[in-house]
Write a structure and sequence with these properties.
Elements lengths: L1 H21 L1 H14 L5 E7 L5 E7 L22 H9 L6 H6 L4 E3 L15 H7 L8 E3 L12 H14 L2 H17 L10 H5 L8
Parallel strand pairs: 3-4
Antiparallel strand pairs: 1-2
């Protein structure tokens, strides 16, 4: 309880502050390449649902062309709408770096359910509503989470919500550490990231078992 209410937020703030300072040269390089790669703004700003379903503005490096629809990248009908450099940033998760600002502002955490748009669904289930059933909207959304290390874009809405609920139930310092280091491994291997829609049966084939 102490970790959840106090220590977790303190760690988030310190890590985000250090990250902003250390990664500032990387920020400048990514800004320059993004601007040269395609027309449009450097940053992608979108309203997402935060803790207790409060909306906030999330910051990312833009990875899609300016005429792309307002949907998650893995739900795009046409993967060609992802820019050349944007595809690289997505595979390496570099597009998420600006969310350090969201963490500093207290809108996000290092670890937690990923923030999504209110309408995110798979044609059957709405992710925010499914999260509500398992209490996953009660914590700050995170830069990475249990679902991200267990399939990410390959998971169905129901599987994501189940993972998010499991995270809230088991939230602890040790679990956050495991997710953090497993995320690094996943990013290096570039697993679970897809540009464009995948067949639903591929998503349901991914294991929804929580970490041991």
């Amino acid at each position: 309880m102490i970790y959840r209410r106090f220590i977790k937020r303190a760690i988030d703030f310190l890590f985000a502050l250090m990250g902003l300072i250390i990664l500032s040269p990387v920020f400048l390089i990514l800004i320059l390449i993004t601007k040269l790669d395609s027309k449009g703004p450097v940053f992608f700003v979108q309203t997402r649902m935060g803790r207790n379903r409060r909306p906030f503005r999330i910051y990312k490096f833009r990875t899609m062309k300016v005429n792309a629809p307002n949907v998650p990248t893995h739900q795009l009908e046409d993967p060609a709408l992802v820019t050349r450099f944007g595809r690289f940033m997505r595979k390496s998760s570099l597009d998420e770096i600006p969310q350090i600002v969201n963490i500093l502002l207290g809108q996000m955490s290092m670890i937690g359910p990923r923030p999504v748009i209110e309408e995110e669904n798979d044609g059957v289930s709405n992710l925010i509503e499914e999260r509500e059933k398992v209490g996953a909207n009660s914590v700050r959304p995170g830069l990475t989470g249990l679902a991200q290390i267990n399939g990410r874009d390959e998971l169905s809405i129901l599987d994501k919500a189940k993972m998010d609920g499991e995270y809230v139930k088991r939230l602890s310092f040790s679990l956050d550490c495991r997710i953090f280091f497993k995320t690094i491994a996943k990013v290096i291997k570039r697993e679970g990231i897809h540009d464009g829609k995948r067949r639903e049966e591929n998503a349901s084939a991914v294991s929804d078992q929580p970490m041991k």
